[in-house]
Amino acid sequence: MKNQIELLMGNEAIGQGLIEAGCQVAAAYPGTPSTEILQAVIDRQEQAVEPLHIEWSVNEKIAFEVALAASYTGKRSVAVMKQVGLNVAADPFMRTAYIGIKGGMLTIVADDPGPHSSQNEQDTRLFCLQARVPVLDPSSPAEAKAMIQPAFELSEKYETNIVLRPTTRICHSRQNVSLEKPIELKRQADFEPNPTRWAATPAFLPQLHRNLNRHLEEIALEPAWQPRLLSGNESQPRTAFIASGIAYSNLVDLLEELGLDHTIDLYQVLMPYPLNPDFCKLMQKKYDRVLILEETYPVIELQLAHPGAVGKQTGGVPREGELTPDVIHQALADFLQLAPPAEKPAARRGQRPSLCPGCSHRTAFYTIKKCFPKGIFPSDIGCYTLGMNLGAVHTVHCMGACISQGAGFYQAYQQDDGQFPTIVVTIGDSTFFHAGIPALINAVIQQTRMIVVILDNATAAMTGGQPVPHMGVAAGNKPTKAIAIEPLVKASGVEFLETCNPYDHERFEALLKQADSYIRSPEGGVAVLIARHGCIMDPATRKAQKSFTVTIQDNCIGCEKCTSAFECPALSMDRTRNIAVVDQDRCIGCGTCIPVCPVAAIIKEEKS
Amino acid sequence: MKQQIIVSGIGGQGVLFLTRVIAQVAVNTGIPVLTSETHGMAQRGGTVLSTIKVGNFASPLVRTGQADLGLLLWEANLPVHQSLLKADGKLLLNAENTGEGIRIDAAKIARDLGNAVLLNLVLLGLAVQKQVLFCGIEDCETAIKQLAPARFVEQNLAAFHKGLDSNK
Ligand code: SF4
Ligand code: SF4
C-alpha cells in the first residue's frame, strides 16, 4: 500500500513523527513557533499503538525534567519548547549532557530568527555547542519528520539527549508529507538505580565528562548525519557553499532561479554540532572560498575555521535577522560577483497588531493608564504585551520578570526619599503559573509596595488557548484538579486581594484606587487584583456575553480617544467627516468603548 | 507546473484558511507544495502574509519579484507586499474602490452571505474564474469540503461560487 500523503505544517509533521517513532512521554510549554508540535501529538494520539502521556507542563524546566525521568525508565520521550524556553530549562539540560539518558530522548527547540514572535533571536545550535549536546537542523517539514526516528536511535546508541532545532519557517510551513505506521517498541518502565550516574556527585563527574567528550567525537563521525553534497560542474573550481536549515532550501531555489544550480559544490549540514573534524579538513583542502549560510549565529563557521570562509563572522552574510531569499541573493551576488539584485523598494510596514476587538485586557489597560497617568507599568510575555499600544506597558522582558522588575523599581525609588510612583504590574494567568509565583513571594518578603494585576483570561491566549492550571483541564481537555489563583496569592503572603471583571470600568477603577491607598498605608505591601474575563477568541466567552449593535452618533467631536487611547481595532476615524466610525465586520458588540467617549457619542442597541 | 503565490491580509481575515485550501488542492492533484504562514503576535489584527509555492521547490519563501499571483484580502497591504510580484504577475484584491489590479468588493459579498470572513473564498472564486490559479473549480470545491467545518461547508461553497460568478 502506498503511504498516505497529508498536507502538514512543520509542527504537525514533527508531532506525527514523534508518534510514529514510539515516543511515550511528551511534555511541553507553549510558545511561538513551537506550540503546534504538542498540539499535533494531542490531536493524533489515537494513532499511537502504545500508551502515551502528553502534558502541557507549567514551564519548560518542568517539561524537560518530566521527559528526562521517563527516559531513565527506558522509554522514548520528548520535551518541546521555543528557544527562550531552553533558557528556562537550561539547568537540567546542561547537566543531562554529562549524565546522559536511557530510552531515546529528544529536546525539540524551535528557534525564531527574525525574530517574529520572541524577545530575541538566540540560536539553539550555539546553546548546544556550549552545552555539548548534538543538534539537528532540518531544512523542511518533511525532513524534520524524517529526522525523528533516526534521532531517537542516535540518542539511544550514545545514551545522550539530542536536540532537534526547527526554525519558524520550518514550524509554520506546510508541505506534502508521507505518513508511516507508528512502531511498537514494547518497553516496560524499568528504572535501574545507579547513583554514580543519576545522582552523580562531583567525584564521578570527571569520568562522565570524559565519556561525554568521547561520545561527541564518535557522534561527529556518524555516517547518517554527515553533510550531504550536491555536486557542481567544476565551472567554479575551489569554491563551495555550505548551508543548513531553511537557508539551505532558500539557496537551492535561488540557484535554480538564477540558472546556477549544479554549478558549484553545495553541502547541506544536517548536524551543525558536533561538526566532523574530517569534514572541516576536507573543506580546507578542497576549497579556497566557502560561502556559509546558517541561522542565526555562526555555529558552523566557528567550527569550520576556514581561512577562505565568507559568513557572519567575516561580515559577508548579515549577522542579524533571517536569511530570507532576498538576503541570500545579496550575499550570493557579492560572493560570486554577480549583478546585484534589483533595488528593492523601501520596505513599508504593515498594520501593527493590537488586542482583539472586545478583549478585556484593553479595558484593564485603559483603566490602569487612566488612574495612574504617571505610573510605571512592568508587563510580561503574552497577548497583553500589546497593552503597549495603550501606553500601559513599559517593560517586557522574559516570562515572569514583571513582578520582580516591579519590585526592583520600587526599591530603587523608595530609597531616595521614601517617595515612589504607583507601580502597576500586569501578568497573564499562564505566565503567573510559569514563573510568577516565586517572584511574588520574593516581592512580599522584600516588603515591596506595588499593585500586581493578574490578567486572568483562563487560557494561554497568545499561543492559541492551551489549558492553564486553574481551569481543571489538562492536555486534550482531560479533566484534572484545578489549582485556583486566589489561595496561591494569599499563601504567598499577599493581604490585599480583589477580583473584578475589567469590563466593569467603574468597579475596576475603584479597586485600583483602593489598592493604591493600601500600598501607601503604614501596613501596606503588595496588592493583587485579579482581572477576570474569558479570552474573546474562546467561542464560549463570546457565547456567554451579550452582544449589542454599537454605533457612533453625529455628536462625536472627533477627539480620537476611542481610536487612540482605547484603540479598539474595530474603531477608526473617518477623516473626511472627522468622526469615529465602527467597522461592523470587526466589532463584536461588547460595548466596552462606550464609557470612554467624553460626549457619549457611542451608543449601543439590542441586536435585532 | 510551477507557481508562486502570495496571500496577504490582516490577522483574523482568513488568510490561513485560504492558504490551506490552495495547498490542499495541490496535494490532492499530486503536485508538491510548500507554504509559509504568519502565526503568533501578528495574528492579532496585524499584517500577515502567506506564501505558497506549487511544483518542485525546496523553500516556501518567495523572493522579491518572483510571485506569479498575489491575492490581497486587505488593500492597505498593497504597498507592503506588491514588490514580491513579478512584473507580469497577476494581482487580485478585495477592495471597495477602483485602482490597480483586478478588484472585487469581496467583503460586501461575504457580508451579504452572513460572514465577512468568507471574503477569502470569494477572492479564490474570482481567481479561478480569471484562470490565474493552477487549479480549477472542482479541485477547489473538493478542498473546501475537506477543510471547512461540516456546518460551514455550504456557506463556504456559496462564497466561492459568488466569486466565480462575479465581475463577468
Ligand atoms: S463595542 Fe466598541 S470596544 Fe467592543 S468591539 Fe465594538 S467597537 Fe470595539
Ligand atoms: S466617538 Fe467619542 S471618543 Fe470616539 S472620537 Fe468621537 S467623541 Fe471621541
Automatic annotation (TrEMBL), chain A:
* A Gene Ontology biological process term: small molecule metabolic process
Q: Name one GO molecular function term.
A: metal ion binding
The domain of life for this entry's organism is Bacteria
Keyword Protein biosynthesis attached: no
Note one Pfam family from the annotation: Fer4
Keywords attached to this Swiss-Prot or TrEMBL record, sorted alphabetically, are: 4Fe-4S, Electron transport, Iron, Iron-sulfur, Metal-binding, Oxidoreductase, Pyruvate, Transport
Q: Which Gene3D superfamilies match?
A: 3.30.70.20, 3.40.50.970
* SUPFAM superfamilies documented for this protein: 4Fe-4S ferredoxins, Thiamin diphosphate-binding fold (THDP-binding)
What are the names of the required cofactors? [4Fe-4S] cluster
Top-level EC class as recorded in UniProt: oxidoreductase
Q: Which residues form the 4Fe-4S ferredoxin-type domain?
A: 546-576, 578-607
InterPro entries given in the database record = 4Fe4S_Fe-S-bd (IPR017896), 4Fe4S_Fe_S_CS (IPR017900), HACL1-like (IPR045025), IorA (IPR017721), Pyrv_Fd/Flavodoxin_OxRdtase_N (IPR002880), THDP-binding (IPR029061), TPP_enzyme_TPP-bd (IPR011766)
- Catalysed reaction, written as an equation: indole-3-pyruvate + 2 oxidized [2Fe-2S]-[ferredoxin] + CoA = (indol-3-yl)acetyl-CoA + 2 reduced [2Fe-2S]-[ferredoxin] + CO2 + H(+)
The cofactor note from the UniProt entry for this protein is: Binds 2 [4Fe-4S] clusters. In this family the first cluster has a non-standard and varying [4Fe-4S] binding motif CX(2)CX(2)CX(4-5)CP.
The UniProt annotation places [4Fe-4S] cluster 2 binding at C568, C587, C590, C593
Instruction: State its Enzyme Commission number(s).
Output: 1.2.7.8
Q: Which residues does the record give as [4Fe-4S] cluster 1 binding sites? A: C556, C559, C562, C597
What's this chain's function? Catalyzes the ferredoxin-dependent oxidative decarboxylation of arylpyruvates.
What protein am I looking at?
Answer: Indolepyruvate oxidoreductase subunit IorA
TrEMBL record, chain B:
Residue ranges annotated for the Pyruvate/ketoisovalerate oxidoreductase catalytic domain, each copy included: 11-164
A Pfam family recorded for this sequence: POR
Keyword Oxidoreductase among record annotations: yes
Molecular-function annotations in GO: oxidoreductase activity, acting on the aldehyde or oxo group of donors
- Supply the source organism for this entry: Desulfuromusa kysingii
* Keyword terms: Oxidoreductase, Pyruvate
* InterPro entries, per database record: IorB_Oxidoreductase (IPR052198), Pyrv/ketoisovalerate_OxRed_cat (IPR019752), Pyrv_flavodox_OxRed_cen (IPR002869)
**Lineage of the organism:** Bacteria, Pseudomonadati, Thermodesulfobacteriota, Desulfuromonadia, Desulfuromonadales
Protein name (Swiss-Prot/TrEMBL): Indolepyruvate ferredoxin oxidoreductase beta subunit
Q: Which Gene3D superfamilies match?
A: Pyruvate-ferredoxin oxidoreductase, PFOR, domain III
